[in-house]
Structures are given as C-alpha cells and as structure tokens.
C-alpha cells in the first residue's frame, strides 16, 4: 500500500499516511493515488461533492467514486490528503460503488479485556450511513442492545445502548461545545454514559469540555472508520464498556 508523509498544518505534527484500498467490481485492489509533496488541507466545511474522488482501476480501467482520503490528527484537525486527479478521457464514471468492502479492518485492541474480531467499516454516503456506522462501532466495542430511537426528539439522541446514549453529528460543521454539554446533561439525567461521533471533527472548546466531562469523542470519515480523538475515547476502545 502507498504511504506518504503528511504534516498537519495546525500543530505541525508529521504522520505517515497509508491510503485505504478498495475492491474494484472486477476484483482488483484499487486505491486513490496520493499526491506526494502536496500539503494536506484542514477540513472546516464539508460538501458531499468534495468528499468523493474519482479513482481508476489499473486492471480494468473502470472509474469509480470513492471517499477522499482523510486523516484525523490527534490535535483535533481533520485533514484532507491530496490525490492526483484522474484524466477525464476514457470510461465514464459510474455512480458511487455500492456494497464496497471498505479499507483494511481496524485491528483488535491489544489491551481490551476480550479480544475483538476485526471491525468491518461501512462506507458513509448519507447521514443515515453515519448513524449506522456509529451503531456498528458501538456493538464492536461491546455495547449491547444498540438501537436507534424511532423518533429523534429534542434531546438529539441518535443511539441508545445498555448504559449508553450517543449522538452522531453528520453535519458539515465541527461539533460545538453546546453539543457536548447537552449530551452530558442528557446522560446525567438518565444515569448512563454518553459518546459523540462527528463527521466534521470538533471545535477546541468542545474537545476541552469533553475531556473535563469524560465524554468519549470519535471522528468519522467517509470510509466508515471511527477514530478516537480524546483520552476518554482511547480508554473506551482499550477497555470496552
């Protein structure tokens, strides 16, 4: 798999980014061609068109739309990794491929009390996909009876599990301080824990408040691979519920 150095323009931390590999319908592994030397871009506003990139299969020449490579820096910034554009001549790009197997699976946590099977991500194309991905991830962590309320009330709770409520922010703006505090109050009132999933990352104020309230924060990317972005989330991944 191709790897390129990526520097976060916010905290200047260096990362070695490995591009996710997807299966073309012909069966050949396909990956977005990363552009070496080009600076990563901080995602501050999302649009669904910008979140997809054309990728051509080297085996059959087919061109499909796949999630644009992204990297979640520990500082909280969500970075878009530049890719080489695909020439417009040749096969016409079909609609985003359905049922893709996604990137390599997340390995089981070595410190978890009970080793987990590999997590199978769900490619995110809609807000509903984001909620479904968070539900799959919570079940993978070990939460039981994960359900989606039939009606999303003013509490904005998207998922409930035994001992947990979770909110999934699939908007194009970073999750704000108010969302963290509202989730914490809802969890406190129902004597359960809370967790947040966000597609556009978190503001600095939200991250700081979540750390103080011990609210796990997870960043979603379009490959459907949740990533912990604060200490409480790391602990939850390591120890489970």
UniProtKB/TrEMBL annotation:
Residues 88-98 have a biased composition (Low complexity). Residues 88-117 are annotated as: Disordered. This is Restriction endonuclease. The lineage of its organism: Bacteria, Bacillati, Actinomycetota, Actinomycetes, Kitasatosporales. It comes from the Bacteria.
